[in-house]
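Per reviewer request, we include the raw input and output of the structure prediction for the construct analysed in the revised manuscript.
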Amino acid sequence: MSILDQFSLEDKVVVNIGSIQGMIGPTPELYVGTDMPLPPPDYFFHKGGLVNLTRYFASVCGKSNVRVNCISPGGFFNHQPESFLSNYNKHTMLGRMAGGGDLAGAIVFLLSDASAYIKGANLAVDGGYTAK
């Protein structure tokens, strides 16, 4: 049985995938000791725009029984240089980057009836990075 089998065809749900970079500015000290460049400004612009576009569509489509929400993940572990990992991990309450399964719970929640009264929200899934 697929996770999607629990949803009816009448459910209308959109879950946009943003980034915490659409919520906060860059953190240049993460890149100290690496050859990794700071992400370009348009990345922050687009991710921030997606969060607000989520609110727009939630407002426009809400009365049509369409739920539109967004999740904003933090950084994902992808074998980054050790100095980057150390710098990044100091900024999260969990002391680590996200792994492959860390978004699933938030997505399932926003797709399920448990979030029936949630519209236009942006849920940070970032190990506490943006909560400080």
